[in-house]
Structures are given as structure tokens and as C-alpha cells.
Write a structure and sequence with these properties.
The chain is of the alpha/beta class. Helices cover 38% and strands 15% of the residues. The structure holds pyridoxal-5'-phosphate.
Length: 413
């Protein structure tokens, strides 16, 4: 159980969690692909569409309200990432779009023959943009490779490929496939010492642990609010001096003199920004501290404790099935080295068939590669239908995990 927090009261805050279909409750284990949202996210978004619906920078009531909201959202996200300055926050459509955009902007700094390091553990959103950039500019791509037995990067993974020519390391903070949490601070320190920029995909880490960009040592961190109980909205943090010196593809006049807005192309989703504030307010309630950043940090600590318990319960249950391989960290004392995203395969069983079986019982899971193209290929599963992915969030219960285990039992009988 969550320390000092009541799971029933948490679940009551999410309208989606109470829905039933033909009398059958919904079991949401599709969280790595998108979480449900609490009522305050919905209320915040409706309020913008109803009462603050205007463009920015004018003289009338709604434009003033919208402008204030946008400022508030940048501050809220600065607190979420523990950034020094709200000007370091850039909103965008999603992580993928932001990465395509920002990689092109950073590309202005690179020249033919420069090296970049990508990760075999990453979602393609942090791989394809860089591969395409490398193709266009004639960059050399090197790979950070993981151990397919431990599902972690060996300590020397980076030193093997890092050189004086390395200009960038792009890697995830946690995998959307294996669930592994990586030692990104260690890798970031190594990469920056060699003079490389560090671009981190925080999409799967952000829904489970607090992000502190001031201690990470990275140059850029990106996440998506729809993975952490907010709306479909991407948010990028980058070091202020990097933003200042980086070229931006943008229309003329827009964002002049306003650092964050320099990289925000076109009119943004103000309702999305408001929803992000709602999600942050939701999360804050579980924490303690003087500042919002401190409350968020302590909130994640509380929520993570419950997640570790249910993840271990799931893993222990899965271990009882013959022919089932969990594709990730499983030892009880290593739950802090993973997020509660548990992927597995069962010998001779198509993951898609299992996903369809669960869907019939109103248990929502994903199967296949889930855009973790490199990891699935590296594990030799690309032509075997990938994995079956069960992704927990703090609002999930032991009873829901038991329902999945019992359903799996009947599927494999
Ligand atoms: C680790 C990771 N990175 C990036 C993405 C892409 O995020 P977005 O949909 O915001 O572009 C995802 C989506 O599932 C993901 O899991």
C-alpha cells in the first residue's frame, strides 16, 4: 500500500478508472503508452477552452488570461524538471516532434565526420531523428549496447564508443520495453567530459521518478505529459546557454527576445499546457515541502514505493509460468533499477494473441515492438512478434495484477 496515501482516494480522482463495459471493470496496464488523467486535468483544460481561449500578447481580457496561463505553465514545468528558469522550458506537440525539431537545430553545430552515440535500448523517437540527421550531414553513428542477459548497459558501454570526435550522446532514462532505468547521470558526466552534448529521453522515467535537471548533468531532457497523467503534450528542457547559442528554425519575429518561445513553432496547445498544470497539481498532493519542486520530488518517492510493491508482485507471479521469460530486471532488491513496465515472452506463444485474449477480459496491454525497434531486434524478437508489455502505474492495484495473472493462466492452459 502507498505510504500515507489511500489508493481508493487516488482512483476516485480518475474518472476513467471507474468506467465499466458490460459490467466489467477496465484494467489499465497500457500506461507506458499513455496514462489516464485525474479530474483536475480535465477541469483545467475545459476552463481554457471555455474562458481563456485566445492568442497571446493582446490587450483584451481573454488574451491576457491566455498569456498568464502560458507563463504559469512554463513555471510549472520548470518545477517539474527542477529547472533553474522557466525560459528553459519548451512546449511542443509530443516528444517525437520536439526531438525531430531540436535535432535539426542542434545539427547546425555538427559537421561531416563528427560522431554521435545512440542507444540500442531506446524508443525509436530518440533514434530515428538522429539517424536521419546523420544521413543528411554525413555523421558517424556509434551505438551504446546493452547486455541481453541483464538488460542493462555494462559499465564500459560508453567508454567503448566515446571519442574526441563524439558530439552527442542520445539515450533514454528508462526503457519503454525492458523497463530498465539507466545510470544516465554517470553516462552524462562521461560524455560531457569528452565534450559531447547529452540528449535524454525522459518519457518513460518521468511517470515514475522525479527528474532533477540540475543534478543530471545533461543538456536536454524531454518527456510527454500524457505518460504522466496529463494531456497529449511534449515538454523539452534545455540548458539556458545552450538555447541561447543554438540556431532555431522559426518564422521571423516570433519569439524574439523570449528564449523558451524561440523554439516553440506556431500557436501552442494552451489547453494542453493547462492540463499539464493540472497533472502537476495532482502529483503535488502526495508530497511535502516548501516549494512545488520539493513537493514533487517527495511525491514521486511516495508513489514509487507502491509501484515497487505491485511490480514485484507481478514479477513473482509471472515467474511461476513455464516457458515465460521476463525481458528485464527481476530481482527483488533491484526494483529501483527499473520502472514498472514489465515485458515478457512465452515460448511458442504469439504476444499479439495474448494481447487479444487480455482485451477480451477488459485488461489493456500492448504487444509487439512498441517502437522499441532496436531493443526488440537486439533481443532477437523482431520476427517473433516482439513482447507482451504490462505497464503499471501508481493507481493500479494488487487485485488488478492478480486478475492479469489469472487470465494468463487460463490463456496458457
Ligand atoms: C521512451 C519513449 N520515448 C519517446 C516516446 C514518444 O513519445 P511521443 O508520443 O510523445 O512522441 C515514447 C512513446 O511511447 C516512449 O515510450
Amino acid at each position: 500500500m502507498i505510504a500515507s496515501v489511500d489508493l481508493n482516494s487516488i482512483r476516485a480522482q480518475f474518472p476513467g478508472l471507474g468506467l465499466k463495459d458490460e459490467g466489467r471493470a477496465r484494467v489499465y496496464f497500457d500506461n507506458p503508452a499513455g496514462t489516464q488523467v485525474p479530474q483536475q486535468v480535465i477541469d483545467r483544460m475545459v476552463d481554457v477552452l471555455k474562458a481563456k481561449n485566445a492568442n497571446l500578447g493582446g490587450y483584451f481580457r481573454t488574451t491576457a488570461a491566455a498569456t498568464a496561463l502560458v507563463d504559469e505553465a512554463h513555471q510549472a514545468l520548470a518545477d517539474f524538471y527542477n529547472a533553474k528558469d522557466p525560459q528553459e522550458i519548451i512546449f511542443g506537440q509530443n516528444m517525437t516532434s520536439l526531438t525531430f525539431h531540436f535535432s535539426r537545430c542542434l545539427g547546425k553545430r555538427f559537421k561531416r565526420g563528427d560522431e554521435i552515440i545512440l542507444s540500442r535500448m531506446d524508443h525509436d523517437a530518440n533514434v530515428a531523428p538522429w539517424l536521419l540527421l546523420a544521413e543528411d550531414l554525413g555523421l558517424v553513428v556509434k551505438w551504446l549496447d546493452f547486455d541481453t542477459d541483464t538488460y542493462e548497459f555494462p559499465d564500459d558501454a560508453l567508454s567503448k564508443v566515446l571519442s574526441s570526435k563524439t558530439k552527442l550522446l542520445a539515450m533514454g532514462m528508462a526503457s519503454n520495453c525492458t523497463g530498465t532505468v539507466h545510470d544516465v547521470a554517470g553516462f552524462a558526466a562521461q560524455a560531457r567530459k569528452a565534450g559531447a552534448l547529452v540528449y535524454l529521453d525522459g518519457v518513460q522515467y518521468a511517470p515514475h521518478y522525479s527528474i532533477d535537471v540540475q543534478s543530471l548533468g545533461a543538456d536536454v531532457v524531454v518527456s510527454s505529459a500524457y505518460k504522466w497523467f496529463g494531456p497529449h503534450q511534449g515538454i523539452l528542457w534545455a540548458r539556458k546557454d545552450l538555447l541561447e547559442e543554438t540556431f532555431a528554425y522559426k518564422v521571423r519575429a516570433v519569439g524574439d527576445g523570449e528564449l523558451g518561445h524561440k523554439f516553440e513553432t506556431g500557436t501552442q496547445s494552451h489547453e494542453g499546457m493547462a492540463g499539464c498544470i493540472g497533472a502537476i497539481e495532482y502529483l503535488e498532493q502526495f508530497g511535502a515541502g516548501e516549494t512545488r519542486a520539493a513537493r514533487l520530488k517527495s511525491a514521486w518517492g511516495v508513489l514509487a514505493e507502491h509501484e515497487k510493491d505491485i511490480t514485484l508482485h507481478l514479477i513473482e507471479g509471472l515467474k511461476g509460468f513455464k516457458g515465460l521469460t521476463i525481458r528485464g530486471v527481476t530481482s527483488a532488491n533491484a526494483m529501483h533499477r527499473r520502472v514498472p513496465t514489465v515485458s515478457f515472452t512465452v515460448e511458442g506463444v504469439d504476444p499479439e494473441k495474448l494481447a487479444k485474449h487480455f482485451a477480451r477480459e477488459n485488461i489493456f496491454v500492448w504487444s509487439g515492438h512498441n517502437y522499441a525497434l532496436e531493443p526488440v531486434k537486439r533481443m532477437g524478437l523482431a520476427d517473433k512478434g516482439g513482447v507482451l508489455r504490462v505497464g503499471l502505474a501508481h493507481y493500479n492495484t494488487v487485485a488488478e495484477v492478480d486478475a492479469l495473472l489469472s487470465s494468463l493462466h487460463s490463456a496458457l492452459k
